[in-house]
Amino acid sequence: MAHTLHTNLPKSTTIFTSPSCTFVFIITLCIISLYTLHHHHNHQAPATPSTTAQHPPLISAFLNSGSNYTISNYLRHLTLHPHLAGTPPSSAVVDYVKTHFESFHLQTHVTDYSVLLSYHLHSSLTAHFSNTTAAVPLPLTEPGLDSDSEVVKPYHAYSPSGSAYGKAVYVYHGREEDYRALASAGVDVKGCVAVAKRGGGMSRNAVVAKAAEKGVLAVVMYTDNNGGGVERGTVLDGVGDPMTPGWAATGGDVERLGVEDSEVLKRFPTVASLPISAETAALILESLEGARVTHLWKDVDLVGKLDRVGPGPTFLNFTYQGENKMATIQNVFAVIRGSEEPDRFVVLGNHRDAWTYGAVDPNSGTAALIDIARRYSLMMRMGWSPQRTIFLCSWDAEEFGMIGSTEWVEQNLANLGSKAVAYINVDCAVQGPGFFAGTTPQLDDILVEVTKKVTDPDFSDSTLFEKWRTSSEVPMIQRLSDVFSDFAPFLHHAGVPSIDLYYGKDFPVYHTAFDSYDWMVKYGDPFFHRHVAVASVWGLLGLRLADDPIIPFNYLSYALQLQNHTDSLYKLLEGDDVSLHPITSTIQELEDAAKQVEDEIKKMREEESEGRVSVMKRRILNDRLMLAERGFLDSDGIKGRQWFKHLVYGPASESKLGFFPGVADAIYESKEGKKQQAMIQHEIWRVARAIQRAAAALKGQLN
Ligand SMILES: *[C@@H]1O[C@H](CO)[C@@H](O)[C@H](O)[C@H]1NC(C)=O
Ligand SMILES: *[C@@H]1O[C@H](CO)[C@@H](O)[C@H](O)[C@H]1NC(C)=O
Ligand SMILES: *[C@@H]1O[C@H](CO)[C@@H](O)[C@H](O)[C@H]1NC(C)=O
Ligand SMILES: *[C@@H]1O[C@H](CO)[C@@H](O)[C@H](O)[C@H]1NC(C)=O
Predict the structure, then answer these.
(1) Of 75, 168, 189, 372, which has fewest CB within 10 angstroms of its CB?
(2) Residue 614 Cα, ligand 2 centroid: separation in angstroms?
(3) Ligand with an atom nearest the CA of residue 560
């Protein structure tokens, strides 16, 4: 598909496609013309390959070769049709990515998995209002979507099929505290159909699980401010293929659990659910009588209209029929082999499957990934070869529960565990204005450094860092405890240091039929400069992590962050009879190890400038830096969700703590009435031991 490059070249560059041009001319001239270079297959790379660390002008070549034309063209092609995982149109998108990787002469391959996906067959929702005897059918899809639209009807993947008839009741975010507020106002939700509003830190799965616990028959969920759209999504608990929990669903001879196996069943909700639009929700909510509870809830929307929460008098008649079935999913990879350390991996990943057209989610990221492939390939033609191996990964079936990335991580767990330097994720690359990022803390510094090298896409006289710093919330860098994209298997299961990047947040067309190329051009990124900026930050991070002779990790920043987490925990536990001393003293160990490494790095840099560092000596230091994160893993994992092995960052059941998920769960369970200080203290000890393992790995010596 190389012609797509030509058709989108700015006019001024087309003159350079003339074969009469010499390469020297082109290279000295500039960067835009570097596209052209790519098409001269007779071009010979310089004899000795060099890394960006050895030859810094390669970095400028990378930065200057970004193109909003090219990237917008990729996005337009990727989003021509909806491409839900496991459906026929999704293979066209596989081909698009694969053909592009190949056209850049990158080593390309595709891995298939057979997994259990879940599709919509039939749904209906009718209201029986008290003022009329006729049943009123409520719309379940976006206006303008007719029955033969190629966009899938809104549904919740892995919802059980079922029907329910009951009084409507409003449960706000569906958290424990919301049910408590309802109960204290005398509202009995048993036997009702619940209306829930997405938010409050609750995943869809958590909402239905909690509703089932409370005796609700079925749940309809709406999302505020999504412009008539309906938010599709998965209600699967945890991540990865449900039939192969903890191992890879490769084709052929592989153990698969039965659908009735308790390990499989516990991943599925027991009550049925459907997404609805805010407009449909308003029709129901306006008709409710009964208790007034809404003053307890901040920011109840449908402003002023919602007064009482029911139950009833409106009845809802709910039907959902879905189908869980085996489907083939495909991950696409381009691999750039490291010249010095081919067995050290820097992994850049984005998912490709989409609920609808996927212009924001996820193909703004896919367009950026392809653009990085193009830019890396230009650099290779200029003689670049990375020190470590770079993987560019295009995941499938993320929307069903990070399935493509999880199966791959499970398949390669031992290799990734011993050889992966870092994972850099981009899902919805561009949702609107403003830069956002989450990292594991040893990556904070390198992220900041890289954003200082990239021009802000909206203010060309400023660096991205400068705008990010002045306009961002505090803290600037988020942590990655929540399970909302493909970094989850890398970080939470394999302990690989991770980064997640995006422009804009909370975009209104999330998982709706309106997430289209047109929306992107109108609202998300009219000139595609933000796309280019994300690709630049992402690709530059890849270059630094693959090419820096010493892996650019700072564990002092990890120790500081852990101390900050511990201070927050201390405030939360004030008055409780538990001690945080085990954690504080192991943080001190980690800090000491981090300082020692910093000193060694300084010394090694000096020796390096005199050419006195052996490859082996550098590698020993790098291995300590790479493996320290693995120390936070615990083979028993988080209680009740043991696939999640990371004890510092990972999902807690229902908590806003955002770190130490095991401790968070123990505190949460205590608040449920039973005082369980011993359990909290035990979880504190487990975190302390995890930090100690990380410190020991960083020191790199056996006791
Ligand atoms: C009946 O109540 C519903 C919900 O409040 C309202 O939308 C509808 O207009 C009412 N119909 C009549 C005939 O009053
Ligand atoms: C609910 O709807 C189904 C079909 O959609 C219908 O068969 C059933 O009679 C309805 N139930 C009530 C109580 O109206
Ligand atoms: C690329 O950027 C230029 C300069 O801002 C702009 O004029 C052009 O329309 C953009 N191209 C696309 C496809 O958005
Ligand atoms: C932790 O750091 C954040 C900002 O980085 C700060 O707002 C917060 O107050 C700190 N927490 C504690 C308990 O020191």
Answers:
(1) 189
(2) 76
(3) 4
Q: H helices within 142-203, ranges in order?
A: 176-184
Taking only the tens place, the pLDDT of each residue in 482-503 is: 999 999 999 999 999 999 999 9
Q: Is the CB of 280 under 6 A from ligand 3?
A: no
Domain end among 274, 304, 326:
326
**Are 366 and 252 part of one and the same domain?**
no
Q: Are 78 and 363 in contact (CB under 8 A)?
A: yes
Q: Is 398 a known active-site residue?
A: yes
- What angle, 0 to 180 degrees and rounded to 10, lies between the N-to-C axes of helices 677-699 and 555-572? 170
CB 659 within 8 A of CB 565: yes
Q: Cα(686)–Cα(565) distance, rounded to whole angstroms?
A: 15
| Statement: the pTM of the whole predicted model exceeds 0.70 | yes
The predicted pLDDT at position 28 comes to 38
For residues 464 and 603, membership in a common domain is answered with no
Centre of ligand 3 from the C-alpha of residue 456, in Å: 15
Lowest average pLDDT, out of 391-405, 437-451, 472-486, 547-561, goes to 472-486
Residues 297 and 218 in one domain: yes
Confidence label for 301 from pLDDT (cuts 50, 70 and 90): low
Atom of ligand 4 nearest to the CA of 474: 4
Task: For ligand 3, pick from 9, 69, 71 the residue to mutate: most ligand atoms within 8 Å of CB.
Answer: 69
